[in-house]
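Quick illustration for those who missed Monday's session on complexes.
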Amino acid sequence: MDLLRFITAGSVDDGKSTLIGRLLFDTKNILADQMEAIERASKSRNDGEIDLALLTDGLRSEREQGITIDVAYKYFQTPNRKFISIDAPGHIQYTRNMVTGASNADLAIILVDARHGVAEQTRRHSLIASMLGIPHVVVAINKMDLVGNSEDAFLEIAQTYKDLADKLNIKDLTIIPVSALNGDNIVERSKNMPWYTGETLLSILETVNVLKDKNTTDGRFSVQYVIRPQTEELHDYRGYAGRLQSGSLRKGEAVKILPSGTESKIARIEFGGQEIIEAGVFESVTILLEDDVDISRGDMIVSVDNSPIVSQDIEALVCWMDDRKTLKAGDKYLLQHGTARTKCSVRSIEYQIDINSYEKLDEVESLKLNDVARIVLRTAQPIAYDPYQQNRANGAAILIDETSNVTVGACMVE
Amino acid sequence: MSNEVSMSISVKEASDLSDQGNIDRRKPDYLDQLEAEAIYIMREVAGQFERPALLFSGGKDSITLVRLAQKAFAPGKIPFPLVHIDTGHNFVEATDYRDMLAEKTGSKLIVRYVEDTIKAKNLKEPTGKNASRNWLQTFTLLDTIEEFGFDACIGGARRDEEKARAKERIFSFRDEFGQWDPKRQRPELWNLFNGRIHKGENVRVFPISNWTELDVWAYLQREGITLPSIYFAHERECILRDGRLLYNTPVIEKDPEDQIVTRQVRFRTVGDMTCTAAVESSAATLEEVIAEITVSRISERGETRIDDQQTEAAMEDRKKGGYF
Ligand SMILES: Nc1nc2c(ncn2[C@@H]2O[C@H](COP(=O)(O)OP(=O)(O)OP(=O)(O)O)[C@@H](O)[C@H]2O)c(=O)[nH]1
Ligand SMILES: [Mg+2]
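Prediction with magnesium ion bound:
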């Protein structure tokens, strides 16, 4: 059975947490004691109605305020698939937590309140989903019960969204009308919206093809750790522990070590101490080479005839996440790419992206929390990357503030 | 001398791993994906930190961690010690297993006792019905981290266990007092884990965050791992209290309403005896245990843990105080 990771996104109160609660409830994935706990917690709140959002809003402050602050992970299963659902906060203040959840998602469900239509946070989250290269986007126009289940209301918002999506890079877009509260078109098709003949949300989640989203062509292996047992039997053993970020590598294959450019051949691949012939995308294996070359954490082993770009000058889209400091030209940070970390300085901010119009804003001096922009960086050591939209794993990088040690930027290298 | 002995055991253990090789590796299944992710996280710990430790309780989640660590670093030894915070109220089956596993994997085992912390710090031990040293473990844990200067502690917590855990990062930053701040968690993007900290701070790392209870059981079965016997049905004298079965041990203070009964039970989680309940069962094999849990309508913690039931945010509050 395979695994789908999806995130719910969209503006405050559009029903993201309720939707996840509903999905779990209708697929019978809420256990009796969990349901009792939700009922108990719901009773102590104002109207006493059962609030399925309490399934994911688990922090004290979230329950006090009735909002989501940080992402919650919930796990469920149907006969067809395993799911990791990630419930993101809608509030602008917590956008970086949404980015955290979205960075690994295969699919994003963007909710829109049918009464209010597309809001600024809908646009921001859609831009982020597009920049992060989330391959599948489902727009769930929610609270249809509050607009009389009107097809016209649905079509109007759907059209607005399509216009917005035209300016973005969303590969696979589906728009559906739902009521998370009542469960309409979530697991069961709605009797209240006979005009809707498309798929239910669950049926989309169960059938979307995630295998083809993986980059299986570019062999990229980042070295995390060097295994050297130094025992008598394994005296000369030198294994490079790491993970295939993309593509595959085979025993006997000619490889290149980056950034140095040294060439060698794969002598052996091991998994858990046992020999295997080939390692595929996202597998954690150990590689042994034929030659005694100098390799350490941060290096990358790649197919000799398919090389990433190796450079100290990089351009990237960035989501800025620091609420204490702005980003300006001349600032210095640590850049973490794969397992490599290097100092870098910000050469310039090329442009910022306007959250509402998606237009480029020139001559921007600095970026503040939640701004999205394209920046130019110069790194102290060269990094071996692929453009993010071709290779999510090897085009992603983070910026770390050297004094606070906090992760302050999400970079998609172009 | 002793070093050499453990090395050779570790080599043997590595070849033990290869005996489990009849898995079809061509079709990546979700268990393979979860395993690959966990191994990747283990290696990030070894690569990013100077003094990591693996918190080992003798329960199934930490047994899973040890297996993952073996696979991550084979044919080498696990490059960090196993650390157990012993409340003194553990099941003997679990502590025996702990000692056996440390020896078998050639790992260094560090045990620190809550009892010693209570004496040294002159702490007041909770008394009465449902009294437990569970919370006191935090003091011993923080002292142990300080004693050895651990900068990363790998734990077996899973996000499906509890609603506060459902919110926690895989690399969970703790300040110099060991505190978790749920409102200021670091962003955690893609698989780029940021383990940078200042001296005195540490990171709790949860490689099996994305596993469910059933994933753990299925993995233990697939890997052919022998578990402590208390995970399987056996006769045991129990205290029947508020509908739950607790082991009848002197460390649990009896209450007039308690009934002493002998039942066929197994444990679904193994923690401190004072706050872990047994379930009635006849499951004698992993397969039967999995079958029972698959149809169970009660969650793992709901069925077995007394400590979470006390307030709505018990786990969150414990974590803010430095708990695992
Ligand atoms: N009538 C109606 N109300 C809904 C529907 N979905 C959600 N709601 C209500 O909308 C309110 C907000 O729902 P949440 O699920 O907490 O919203 P959210 O998007 O998770 O909010 P944040 O996470 O704080 O951004 C709650 O009172 C829900 O009961 C729906 O389909 N119909
Ligand atoms: Mg919410």
